Amino acid sequence: MQNILAIYGSPRRKGNTTLLLDHAVEGVTETGAKVKKIVLRDLKMSPCLEIYGCKETGRCVIQDDFQMIYDQLLECQGLMLASPIFFYTVSAHTKILIDRCQSLWVKKYWINKVPYGQGELKRKGLFISVGATKGKRLFEGPLLTMKYFFDVLDMELWKTALYRGLDLEGDVLNHPDYLQEAYEAGKEFAFALSA
Ligand SMILES: Cc1cc2nc3c(=O)[nH]c(=O)nc-3n(C[C@H](O)[C@H](O)[C@H](O)COP(=O)(O)O)c2cc1C
User: Fold this and answer.
1) What does R_g of the chain's alpha carbons equal in angstroms?
2) Quick one: which atom of ligand 1 is closest to the CA of 84?
3) Among the four residues 9, 112, 131, 172, which has the most C-beta atoms within 10 Å?
4) Whole-model pTM?
């Protein structure tokens, strides 16, 4: 059975990315796959301190809730990550998680000496994001970040679900088509992982 991780990166409990990710989770569970949810705002996680305590083993030495996420990130077959756009990048909660994964970058590229950009992408990732504005370049920053974040996890960035023009909490409820799309994306994600 597929083991999928769903990481919620918004500070809002019922925000737009949360509702979209909830629908993707529903789509996944519909297929019988298992999903473990992680809500970043509920965790205590220090930013990366850049001390490179990870350089011997590839494991971060800061003892906080990241340790639990680290294990889940290594165990899952697929990751669904949702973050709002804050100042043209991901939320601070999401960025802290990404930066703590520098330990996995160290593991992959320094310890295991994988040639840059040549690792096998054995797993898959889905990225959901929402911004209030409608500019063409709204998601450019986070998409570049996601490219390198999923690479560190040996994951192909399988799909992105990006929505513009949603600002207030629950605005996405006025767009049932977006929620349906997220549900279908979750379902397809689980099928793609089992293929
Ligand atoms: C600190 C902060 C920064 C934001 N920066 C942007 C931005 O750069 N571009 C944009 O389109 N929306 C921006 N927004 C709006 C959010 O992306 C928008 O409200 C989104 O729907 C929030 O998603 P959520 O409900 O999942 O948290 C910002 C909101 C906050 C609170």
Assistant:
1) 16
2) 23
3) 9
4) 0.97
